[in-house]
Amino acid sequence: MEPIEIFKRWFNEELKLSKARIPTAVCLSTVGIDNFPNARFVSFKEIFDNSFIITGPLNSRKGIEIENNDKVALTFWWTETERQIRIQGVATKISEGLAEKYFKERNVNSQAVSSICEQGNEIDNVEQLEKRVLEKVLEKSKITRPQNWSGFSIKPTRIEFMEFKKTRFHDRKLYEIVKGEWNIKQIQP
């Protein structure tokens, strides 16, 4: 079975059991502009064209780091099924059409925050910023996607699946692209 199909099956199994408020959370790791690794949780949107989609501001730290070095990693940890999936791949900016689609799917509070806030920048008055966001929400008008809000398509080059076992003899399989084809290896726990 292809690794993308395994991912989809595992993801759906976890979603059916998950009690997490945000079951689509995934850890995105980038190489910082200072060459230190940088990790944060983002929301996984879907698999599109055999790539993993995440969204957010292009001028945020993650956006700047991906622009500087397109090699990224995603790590999924699923509590209910006791599985982990590690993905390494290359990130590219998604199309304007996809960015519009994902922005429209966001709730109004998320749209308002994205249209007003400059993610990761320092702020002196958080209450004033919160007031501006609330005013935007209360306007009840359509919120336009900011030009700096988009997303990334992460084309995997490696995917590792790990199923945890009570014996600690975890089952680990590593899929890697070799000469354009997925190659599978069983690796030690």
Automatic annotation (TrEMBL):
Swiss-Prot/TrEMBL cofactor(s): FMN
Keyword Oxidoreductase on entry = yes
What the entry lists under SUPFAM superfamilies is as follows: FMN-binding split barrel (SSF50475)
A Pfam family this protein belongs to?
PNP_phzG_C
Q: Does the keyword Flavoprotein apply?
A: yes
Q: Which residues form the Pyridoxamine 5'-phosphate oxidase N-terminal domain?
A: 23-133
Annotated Pyridoxine 5'-phosphate oxidase dimerisation C-terminal domain residues: 149-189
Q: Give the keywords, sorted.
A: Flavoprotein, FMN, Oxidoreductase
Give the matching InterPro entries.
Pyridox_Oxase, Pyridox_Oxase_N, Pyridoxamine_oxidase_dimer_C, Split_barrel_FMN-bd
Q: Which family does it belong to?
A: Belongs to the pyridoxamine 5'-phosphate oxidase family.
PANTHER family, from UniProt? PYRIDOXINE-5'-PHOSPHATE OXIDASE, PYRIDOXINE-5-PHOSPHATE OXIDASE
The name of this protein is Pyridoxamine 5'-phosphate oxidase
Give the source species: Flaviramulus aquimarinus
